[in-house]
Amino acid sequence: MYDLNQKTIFVLDHTQYFSISSEDYIALDYLKGKTGPSNDAIPSTSPGLQFSKSLWTCSVESSIEYCRIVWDLFPRGKLVRFIVSDTAAHIVNTWKFATQNMSHVLNAMALVGVPQRNTQSSDYSVIHGLRAAIEALAEPTEQQLNLMHAAENTVATNEKIPNKGRVICVTSARDNPSMKSLEDIFHNVLMQQNTLAMTQKKILNIDHCHLVIINVVPMNVDTLVTNRKQIELSSCLSTEIHTTSAPEISNKLTHLIMSHYDLASTTVTGIPMKEEQNANSSANYDVEILHARNAHTAICGTEVLLPTSIKEGAEYETVTLKWCTPRGCGASDMSACPPCLAQQRVTPVDVTSRPSSCLINFLLNGRSVLLEMPRKAGGKTTSHLLSARGGEIFIHSLQITRSCLEDPPSISEGPGGRVVDYRISDFATFIKIHRFVPLKSKANCEDNLHRTRDRLYKRSRYFPLTLNTTMVHNLQRNMPWLSTFLRKIAKEDMDKTDEVQCQQNIFELYTAASRGELLPFATMNSNRLKGIKKTEQYRLLCAELEMIIRGYATNSHHKVILENIQNVRAACGDASIKAENENSRDSSGKSIIRATTDSPLSPPHSMDSNSNNASILKANKRNLINAGQRTLFDIVINVERSQNSKRPEFTGRLCTPIGQVAKLYPDFGSKEKETGSAASIATKDETLPIKTDGSSLRS
């Protein structure tokens, strides 16, 4: 009772304009052997044997058809009222259940009659009816009266009774400014009525009103009023505008009723019926029925393909189901049917057509019909059942997938295409980590629950169900650092030490990728990796790691790790991540190779300015920015340059004050003199005088 469709009011314009013709002429045919007014056989092509309905007749027929569908599908609870507006507002029926029927409305409309064309008066206006509609929305229904009486008898009298409704105004305006003026007047009257409701107890406050204005014009006549979707004028009023020709009012209201009451259309095709002229022959006909949308949405099979189409002249889709062999409605006949998921009332769209009448009579006589629909994999399946009980026709949604009443399939079953590599142990671990534990204190319970739900939502956004659909969890056994990396990433209080260790692991991954090493898959299906290059495997691995890190990211350390993974992914040739890093590379101040090669084993960077290192880094950044697709040779050269830039600083520069020139080998000269003098003294001491004679020399 809290929906907008709880109360629906039709305001029908009864001014002189609606007495004109709709210009949709219907030809008349005389029966064979009958004569016309001149006692001669007049051919059917004569222009005198045709007529057209007035705008008023088209409006009344379409609006009554609207309420017929509502009352067929919702016998109780959905109320519809009619108000006719000319020089004053004429109330056709009330919210009482005794006036909510077709006979009462049709008799009242017959008394109203067609508008008089020759009447001249300035008091004719649709505003009278809109004012009366707002007052009618404030009137309580029988159910609301019971709630009001119950609230008066209880202590808590401040309980507010919800009151919403919809007003459908069928009128004709000159242009868009006229429509805007009509909306403003309706809004002002609505606010005045809510102000009045605060001072009186017998009327209700209107929480929200949905105003639907249908601008009607004769056939083949242009109008200056344009269609407009639903907009919110205020917190208590939303409006929309539709322009249509008089013969199309019925299709427009049928389209609107599907959104107003959440209905769906089904067309039953291939219904065999005997020809009216020849009883020995039969032909196939189609019948369109309306029902609640749940009759289609209740079927939850992935292999289901609902065949939809748009009927000629309509604005909505209809589901096409094929007629099957009929059967009875007894227990023995129904025992062979699949379990029923949902049942909804149905009503035909064209209740006066011969195929609709035959189908209704066939079902009311105690028969039932199965309806077929196609599958994605081919073939057909019985998805719905039409049957009648207690004078009402229902459509049943049948279970077409595996029933919940059967035994669940065993995970260990291998043959038959069933999946055998579920991550059962990982899922059990995931459940244990995210168990809810009752708190001793009741303070901030909602905040804790909201934070826990948010955490569970982030971490469960990516969870592969099988090992064949993940690369990270296949490599944990043969890549020892990966398990440690995932544990550190999952820590909400990740610190600097964990960040440095994760950066070292990322560096190992980048080194393996630059060397072209194969990923050591253990249980991964080898057929799935055929034709995938090594760089593509590393790119997919980095993309999966990025998704995992995003699910656990809570502080700045996670953000650094995420950026490093993105850099490695870009180095592996991912064009999408390259484009993202291209915009943020200047602001980050770090190159891709510099970020991935920093490790705990690298020497510390100098705190002083180094022109040589700065020039190398600038050249490296310039090369990375200008290079579109880098080769493996470029990556290796950049790694060597970055490693060379990390050598220890020159000791002489560190010991020399700023502004002075460092002297190379300052003690080199003094040490050489001392060494030379010491050598000469030792030579004099060790040399002995030797005399030689000529004989000895000659000998």
From TrEMBL:
Residues 579-613, 670-699 are annotated as: Disordered. Coiled coil: none annotated. The keyword Cell division applies. Residues 579-588 have a biased composition (Basic and acidic residues). GO terms for cellular component: integrator complex; perinuclear region of cytoplasm. It comes from the Eukaryota. Keywords: Cell cycle, Cell division, Coiled coil, Cytoplasm, Developmental protein, Differentiation, Meiosis, Mitosis, Nucleus, Spermatogenesis. It is found in: Cytoplasm, Perinuclear region; Nucleus. One of its GO terms (biological process) is cell differentiation. Belongs to the multiprotein complex Integrator, at least composed of IntS1, IntS2, IntS3, IntS4, omd/IntS5, IntS6, defl/IntS7, IntS8, IntS9, IntS10, IntS11, IntS12, asun/IntS13, IntS14 and IntS15. The core complex associates with protein phosphatase 2A subunits mts/PP2A and Pp2A-29B, to form the Integrator-PP2A (INTAC) complex. Belongs to the Integrator subunit 13 family. PANTHER family: INTEGRATOR COMPLEX SUBUNIT 13, SARCOMA ANTIGEN NY-SAR-95-RELATED. This is Protein asunder. It comes from Glossina austeni.
